[in-house]
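Task 17 of the worksheet. Students: predict the tertiary structure of the chain below and write it out as structure tokens. Keep your answer in the requested format; marks are given for formatting as well as content.
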Amino acid sequence: MFTIALPKGALLKDSISTFKRAGLDFSDALDAENRSLTFESNCKRAKALLVRNGDVPVYVSYGQADLGIVGYDVLRESELKVAKLLDLGFGGCHMSLAVKKNSNYLKPTDLPANCKVASKFIKTARSYFEELSIPVEIVHLTGSVELGPITGMAEAIVDLVATGKTLKENGLIKIDDLFYSSARLIGNPLSMRLDDNHLRDTILSIESINVIEK
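Model answer:
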């Protein structure tokens, strides 16, 4: 039996659907009354761990899970050693730079030198501004980063944007996209090397389903 780390939250339903079509049914994890954090597939070939999206690369990297599904934004920010297997195509959104609508900043280079930029994704934000040679101070927030510009604590934010509704409702606009993020299938490198084809067969099943759907 191998182990899969499934992300709680927005990616869970599509993640379970992906594995179900590959022959591994963890539908019990969608039951709001079920408080368990571990689930066996109906076929008893695999076990799932229900974890926070940000913890998926940790469980996979340290070998507590052989496979996992995680957003590319989290994967890129974590920088942990995992096998990057497949782009699953769901959970799409952009990592974006946004400012107050009335700020008159139209592009990244309009930001004043050494201004404050709020973000949950501090490594991603720092790397972005370093590549642009724009000196800024990154302010690490774990909650609603939109409050940074609203309160005057920061001139801009770097955050995930799906529909843009939250930005609009808080008087913010995008001025740049850093990259596109979607759900990714990842694996533990050692598990992949020692695999007796159980992981390989599951990965190939998921890959073939994705090809057909495209």
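Marker's comment: The mean pLDDT is 94. The first helix runs from residue 12 to 21.
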